[in-house]
Design goal:
Layout: H1 2-34, H2 51-66, H3 90-98, H4 103-145, H5 152-171, H6 179-185, H7 189-196
Length: 208
Amino acid sequence: MPKAKGKISIIKIILTICVLWAGIKYYNAYQASQAINYDIIPKRDSKEISQEELMSFLPVWSDYMDRHISELGKRPVSLASGAPEDNLSDEAKEWLLRRLWYPNRFFYVEQRLRTILKTIEYQAQSENLIKELSRQYAALQAQQAQNSNPDSNLSSLMNSIENMIKEQKAKENVEKISPEEIKLVLPLRTVIKDALSKSQTTDMTGTK
């Protein structure tokens, strides 16, 4: 009998070791499956944004705002930090990484799109102003042509209008937005504007 009990104890020990070993293997496999695969996250670093990047950004941004992801981890905002990604908790950063976005690029695209929208709006306003100034200039020019001697007052006004037109054109694209980006965003500006206008009750990143 003692020998039989000894064999049973050895079997139990072996079974316990096997169970533990299987558990460790399963845990390691689970951890590996949960690990972030940085190799598949696009490394975007260009100043301009592409159509592929825009199409990838919009649904993730919408989900990010709807789910209040910036509140994950309840990390307090750092007043010394000017970058939204620096105020994200590790949980929020992981959420973005699992959706194939590096946080710094994610918020870069957000800000870039806001700048492009502002540029498009400013250019539309500028074009209307330049048209009106050009009309006024043409009227003064026609009036000046009727004078046998140039009118100094008219010449001064025309010079002022010319300078205003030049200044207006110089300000049309101070952000150096490329024509390709304007062409990309222009037909989608309403959709993009609506997406970026989403706000959260408590936005820990300070991004709206």
